[in-house]
Amino acid sequence: MDPRLDAITRRIAERSASSRQAYLSRIDEMRREGPQRGNLSCSNLAHAFAASEPEDKQSLKLTEAANIGIVTSYNDMLSAHQPLGAYPDIIKRAANSVGCTAQVAGGVPAMCDGVIQGTPAGELSLFSRDIIAAATAISLSHNMFDGALCLGVCDKILPGLLIGALSFGHLPVIFVPGGPMTSGLSNPEKAKVRQLFTEGKASREELLEAESAAYHGKGTCTFYGTANSNQMLMEVMGLHIPGAAFEPTGTVLRERLTEAAAQRVCKITALGREYIPLAEIVDEKSIVNAMVGLLATGGSTNHSIHWVTIARAAGIIIDWQDFSELSAITPLVSHIYPNGSADVNHFHAAGGSAYVIRTLLDSGLLHEDVNTNWGPGLRNYTLEPRLQDGILHHVEGAAESADLEVLRPATDPFDREGGLRLLEGNLGRSVIKVSAVAPEHRTVEAPARVFASQQAFQAAFEAGELNRDVIAVVRFQGPHANGMPELHKLTPYLGSLQDRGYRVALVTDGRMSGASGKIPAAIHVSPEALAGGPLARVRDGDVIRLDCESSELQALVPADEWRERKPVRNDAEARTYGLGLELFGFMRNAINEAEAGATVFNGN
After folding, report:
1. 359 strand-pairing partners
2. Could you tell me if 136 and 71 are in contact, meaning their C-beta atoms sit under 8 angstroms apart?
3. For a designed S-S bond to 151, which of 72, 487, 552, 560 qualifies (C-beta 3.0 to 4.6 A apart)?
């Protein structure tokens, strides 16, 4: 064990001692009450199995065999979720095969930032995570279940499912993904056409053709954004069946993995001899493992928000300082787009999550002594699934990378540090993803141009007003202001300016997804502008220094002048109606700052 990793973990455990014990006490109280459906009245129970098959009714009446609740994010509009429609029938058959039953407990919404980014609906995206968490709790609240399977993949969906499931931490819970789509047009080629379109050098028809060739079928998008980062973190936390993350959708092996998840959760309920509740998996060590797995693979910046909230749901307190210190000791072992040209299918073929976990364990950079859904020890997740005569087996995963351009050992990484850093200064605290930013672009000092919306930035670009060294300050994009929408739409414009030879960067209290790449972007700036944070003091022309090497985010304004400046009011009032926005005013008022998780659950 690397002593620095151990020290950070101990610090988190000490900081969290009181809240963690309070969480475990609540979970223990729920556990002592035993299987809940046995305590239901006859009327309650009859309602709960009225629509079940006759053989399932008999099992449910006896309350002696496990009944599994399925919480699903299925819809057939979004490619990542469409495959999940077939899963309940697969799961029910698999549960029946080991003498158990399964019921769809409920559904949760699934928004796709790929569809809504840059539109008013984007202002609902982050809020949807907490709605999903609450919907998960509602789904499991019927007191019918001895375990649960959570079907979900993307962005806010999987974090929401996990937050909600942790309220039922006395139950075993396995997460069941749908798998990535097959590789289409490469991510670098897609990004090139996007940038050409912003410069007026490609038509809308050419852009749509490129996008359709990249996003062409069923399954999760193949770049390493939030969705695929989610799957990596589920592996390194031991919440999947080993090797479930990146097996493509639609294969026989993918179906066998889904069956195995159903059969496994039946075996690890409190009714059997191998009880593994969720609360005993998600602890301080597994949270640190998730952070290391994220940093080692250059994953999504969104998880600097999501995992703060997930950890708090289990009584564990982490912050951006923890992320930054872990990043400093975590080698970058993978190059997946946007950090490289490969997609997740190439990553999977080169050795995938099993290889990443193996090389980090071998270097003492992950806690091996954790519990998992596959049993004690994270070494279980260095196994890979294989089919032999149609039957699922797990074998030792790759000991060496099959492609050193995609995966490297921790002893010879792409970079000695992980992909995330904390920036601080008189503009507040922010995070920046540097794994895809070339070293020569990691320090930018330039005059600010201030915007209050993505649309205002786009208009200035199209008018030719940004053809210079510039740091774009896009403020009033925080959780209180407008729900903290993704600002990924700005990336092609900023990339175009950088390619013209200008030194450019983005500073914002908004979010920028894990798909963002080569532009230095100080994001999640806290406190946010609407709360009177320092971004509200910035004026056009102020020279700003963004320095990844010194971890500095500073407005180079004389200190006395800076102190005297009054924060400006929101110069572009957020839209509060239409597309259901009027239903979320209470969340804008209740949500806390980004470093606290940008959630309504953790308090202000």
Report:
1. none
2. yes
3. 72
How far is Cα 276 from Cα 373, in angstroms, rounded to an integer? 7
How does 496-511 read in b/e, with b if 16+ C-beta sit within 10 Å? bbbeeebbbbbbbbbb
Tell me how far apart the alpha carbons of residues 163 and 101 are, in angstroms, rounded to a whole number. 25
Q: Which residues pair with 428 in a beta bridge?
A: 425
CA distances from 381 to 155, 162, 234, 373 (A): 23, 19, 10, 10
Cα angle 563, 565, 571 (rounded to 5 degrees) comes to 140
**What b/e sequence results for 354-370 when a residue is b if at least 16 CB atoms lie within 10 Å of its CB, and e otherwise?**
bbbbbbbbebebbbbeb
- The CA-CA-CA angle for residues 75, 109, 267, to 5°, reads 80
- Record the tokens describing residue 102, joined without a space: 């399964």
Q: What is the pLDDT of residue 604?
A: 40
pLDDT in tens, 250-279: 999 999 999 999 999 999 999 989 999 999
**CA atoms of 311 and 595, how far apart (whole Å):** 12
Alpha helices in 380-430 (DSSP H): none
- Which range (29-38, 94-103, 232-241) has the least confidence? 29-38
CB of 101 within 8 A of CB of 95? yes
94-116 pLDDT, tens digit each:
999 999 999 999 999 999 888 88
The string of DSSP letters for 36-88 reads GGGGS-HHHHHHHHTTS-HHHHHHHHHT-S-EEEEEE---SSSTTTGGGGGHH
Question: Rounded to an integer, what distance in angstroms lies between the CA atom of residue 552 and that of residue 151?
Answer: 40
> Whole-angstrom Cα distance, residue 601 to residue 604?
9
Q: What is the mean pLDDT of residues 568-577?
A: 73
Distance (Å, whole) CA 564 – CA 464: 33
Residue 281 and residue 266: Cα distance in Å, rounded? 17
Instruction: Kindly report the pTM of this predicted structure.
Output: 0.94
Indicate the pLDDT class of residue 516, thresholds 50, 70 and 90. low
Q: What is the mean pLDDT of the chain?
A: 92
| pLDDT 10s digits, 418-455 | 878 999 999 999 999 888 888 999 999 999 999 999 89
